[in-house]
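Exam revision sheet. Question 4 asks you to relate a sequence to its structure. Input first:
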Amino acid sequence: MSAHALYVTAAYGITAVVLAGLIGWILLDQRARRRELAELEASGVRRRSDKAAKP
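Answer key, structure tokens:
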């Protein structure tokens, strides 16, 4: 394997690892935000756009 092929393979590998890490981070953050939103709604805080739940 030439040095150029090794460089290209390493670049693709690093890119795949970084992209997988970013996707994982986004998914974990999404779960945390949904959990926070559920806690807020359970405590009585409603969204401003929620027209059905008028006090």
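Marking note for examiners. The longest helix spans residues 3-42.
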